[in-house]
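Marked as duplicate of an earlier ticket. Keeping the data here for the record.
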Amino acid sequence: MSNTITTQTLIYSSYPEGLVKESDFTYNAALEIDSTLQADEILVELLHLSVDPYMRGRMSKNVPKGYFPAFEIGKPINGGGVAKVLKSNHENFKEGDVLLGYFDWQKIQKVKISGEAFLKNYVKIDASIPLPLSYYLGVLGMPGMTAYFGFLDICQPKEGEVVVVSAASGAVGSLVGQLAKIKGCKVIGISGSTENVQHLKDLGFDEIINYKDFNNDTNALKEAIEKAALPKTGVDCYFDNVGGFVLDAVTLSMNRYGRISCCGSISEYNGQKDLGPRLNSVYVVRELKIQGFIVGSFYHRLDEGVKAMTKWVLEGKLKVLESKVAGLENIPKALIKLFTGDKVGKMIIDV
């Protein structure tokens, strides 16, 4: 009896130049794999996949030192996903378990899980919690933990302070803004789409600024931010997802002892010139704290973050925005939308 099964996969086939293109990937709708399991292997079927801006940083020959390794040409990309166990030869998992973990962009696949360190990358989802499985890739997954630890730990917001969030309609930014409201802050969202204004208002953002209206004019954007902060003077906390002139404009609006959490630099991911940070005198004179972070550094506190975010979702204090795309073959379209602003909230692939 043959143990060969046919599945679908998406292969990363060339390094992007500038914005990701569909031609950078190759879709195979009839990949044959052997489903026979060796020791510590499981066979899974993907249900949902996550695509995130950080992935563009790994689609390069020259990944920054200390970051995740580059994706390999000729292989599927590996990223966050939710999958159902079809067969198991591992003592910790059984048929029917639903797992949150790291999976290749392949509908059915074998995963070898050996050693305690590797085992921590695969977590059984508690079926008793009445929330959609896709939430474990967003608010209860890496984006949610990025928002929780990157904002609350680094910015340490206080009631009544003014918080600015860039890429506010994204998976992380939309959550940071809501966390700031939970902490009693005034929240200014910076986005690149007028279509997302109402979505952000519905999440509780007090003011929304479209950075595209300012044509890279740092001083004009600074004035708009300070006007939006009124009757407060200036900005106390900034959660930065984009870098570039937006980071410069917010920095110039910061109050003394302000805190800046640097999560990402979307404006630079697709080959644009590095624009900062470079306002050293402002950091010194205003005694600003500016800190970058990788969310994995907080994973020893993962239970804390998941429990807190789950509680706020169930209480209705955190609303979840998702944009969904169906099919592995359409992942490149979803990746492009991450950088063009043609989506809102967490981008999810329904496999």
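See parent ticket for discussion. The mean pLDDT is 90.
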